[in-house]
Specification:
eight-stranded mixed sheet, Carbamate kinase, homodimer
């Protein structure tokens, strides 16, 4: 008998038929004798609808009331799935964040989990009750509702798995695992049987949408075993592991792309030693995170600064940047939305100069010009124009030998 | 400075535009210097949608999970209205039932309020914060969500007004007050400036939809001053008072009609002394309430039983009645859905034999046949066929002199 946390995302519970199907998946696991805690997202589309209401009443900032409105979606799903499980003869009940409770800090819309009381859930498990926990939500120390940010139900699931010392956390979604690249853009994309936490973290952070980066970080931190699999059809999923059991011939595990970034260029900024820090801090105060920050060498005491930030934050960032332009007195502020970030992810990448060379040569030979480059221990990201997304993914997928299905069999869990 | 509870129903908060309008109504009251507690229903249509989901997963009974699903609608509205108020420069925050808390018994779907802690809300009022309380919901002593039954937000509002010793509870709805009959069916229907609790209770119980009967009962019990008025246009509403200040020429205050009843006939039931009790108890065990129960005199040891019950309960009642047919061994079980209950409401009615005579003569002279009759201190109800609804309402409205607007001016608050 094992203890599993099963998490079902928005498309998995999009309507009553899907909910019923999910209930049957849970039943199978229950009948196999496992202890189960289920975590659910809002039904697909509901959160967007609720965001729409809240934004049309208060478009310019996020308040704690946004969290009250948004968290209701998960409440509905938890109640409905508990109903569906009960109909199948199981004993189940819904749990809202305040009932567990799941305690967070009081950062509205982006709260972080501080503590999960497991006593109630442990009692459920002992009594053979399957708790269905509403994901994405928490309460702060003032007993007010908070939410964990988009995709926060993954975080709820991983945090519960850690707190309950679950044997594994299964993330059910609408794809059957983690691919070497987006299968809609790369015909030869291959499902990975295993991927390391670190690689998965980069893949998620760089735009692979199967898992939220924060939940991978949390899983890594607490050594929670993760599996990504489909609630739509039966197939082996992808296991996120500490070390890959079989080292593949190439260190590259996949290529992610993120079209939701904008490139900001500040031109002719008088050089100051803390220039980057100033810009970074100003944006961070408004919870806008900057990525791919690059500063040119000073010419005549002036530098150019390039950085990317999430498209969703652009509206809030623009007045801040215009204010900075007045304060720092620089000539141009350019905003380019026609960019995509392509990231090649794999362990030990930085030490392998061959990969960078391969990357640049391949892109150049296909007339793909690179606007920005950043590297880390396990990823290398380039910024290119949007219309070259599919071309770049495919040529890189080929040059790094990611296609082919044979290796996958050996790697499947 | 007065303290008011303002309650806004589903059509008053049906969309973002209406919510914004409601926020302005609240602002007007706040600027007049009043202390305000706001109670909201779910946006019109939402509750039905949620009921639809829950019923398709679990059609045959109501469980605590139905309450979890349904109560989310009011959560959304409370968050949105608090947002809208904040946008208008007021200080506001949402309150869910568990945050107040509003404690109920653990009767799922039909919980009754046991206790309201006012400490949090009093603190809000002292600090100039306008709390927006989610109506319809409560928590039981196990800290699980409960709901108060359809229209339960009225009950929340009245209960809060009682607990907070409010000067008045204003129920904003899509009509501008209580009418002598449904204005859509009776052209001469007249808005009442005042109506007594007892009359309002009967009007509500007999189908006038402006207020839930239970909330009127609660208002009567705790002497909460009620006002019914429109959130759609400015007009004097109807005050629900202990005694009407001006006695009108007729004792009849209005005529209600309820088309959502079915007539059950059990034919040839062997007479037993506790027959009515048996039937009543069996249905009550399943929380089906029987109305207009009439038993014929025994002929050859057998009786006929006629009673009405809510159409919504028919599906659950039918198997119980069929079971009773087997146990009690009677010949026929008839179910007639083509009925409407017409109720004439007014103080001191039973003592005035003229009214009953007038009622029967008027209906008879218009070929309206009466299937059942029941009377109480302040109402007289008849069951007739549905297609004669408008005819019956109009001829009774005329014969009891309910039309005309002059008297209304004198009665307006």
């Amino acid at each position: 008998m094992a203890r599993y946390v099963l998490k079902f995302g928005g498309t998995s519970v999009a309507n009553v038929t899907r909910l019923h199907h999910v209930a049957n998946l849970v039943k199978e696991q229950a009948e196999a004798g496992h202890e189960l805690v289920v975590v659910v997202s809002a039904m697909a589309g509901i959160t967007n609808e609720l965001v729409g209401y809240a934004q049309s009443l208060c478009p310019d900032k996020l308040t704690p009331e946004h969290d009250v409105v948004l968290s209701s979606g998960e409440q509905v799903t938890s109640g409905l799935l508990a109903l569906a499980l009960t109909r199948l003869g199981l004993i189940s009940r819904s749990y809202l964040a305040w009932q567990v409770p799941i305690v967070t800090d009081d950062n509205p819309s982006q709260a972080r989990i501080l503590k999960i009381e497991t006593e109630q859930l442990e009692r459920c498990l002992k009594q053979g009750i399957i708790p269905v926990v509403a994901g994405f939500q928490g309460i702060n120390d003032q007993l007010r509702l908070t939410t964990l940010g988009r995709g926060g139900s993954d975080t709820t699931a991983v945090a519960l798995a850690a707190a309950l010392k679950a044997d594994r956390c299964d993330i059910y979604t609408d794809v059957d695992g983690v691919y070497t690249a987006d299968p809609r853009l790369v015909a030869n994309a291959r499902k990975l049987g295993q991927i390391t936490y670190a690689e998965m973290f980069e893949m998620a952070a760089q735009g692979a949408k199967v898992l939220q980066a924060r939940s991978v970080e949390l899983a890594l931190k607490h050594r929670v075993k993760l599996r990504v699999l489909s609630s739509f059809f039966k197939a082996s999923g992808t296991d996120i592991v500490e070390e890959r059991k079989f080292v593949e011939s190439t260190q590259i595990s996949g290529i992610a792309h993120n079209p939701h970034e904008v490139l900001i260029t500040l031109k002719g900024v008088p050089h100051q030693i803390d220039l980057m820090a100033q810009i970074f801090n100003r944006l961070a105060q408004h919870r806008i995170s900057v990525d791919m920050l690059v500063q040119t060498h000073a010419v005549n005491g002036k530098v150019d600064l390039n950085f990317t930030l999430p498209q969703a934050d652009l509206e809030r960032a623009q007045p801040l940047l215009e204010q900075l332009q007045k304060e720092l007195i620089f000539s141009n502020l350019d905003i380019d939305q026609d960019v995509v970030k392509i990231s090649v992810v794999g362990i030990g990448m930085r030490s392998n100069l061959e990969i960078g060379r391969n990357l640049f040569n391949t892109l150049a030979s296909h007339q793909i010009s690179v606007r920005l480059l950043t590297t880390s221990e396990i990823k290398m990201s380039v910024l290119i124009t949007k219309q070259q997304t599919a071309l770049a993914l495919n040529v890189l997928h080929e040059v790094f030998n990611l296609e082919g299905g044979d290796k996958e069999c050996a790697l499947s869990a």
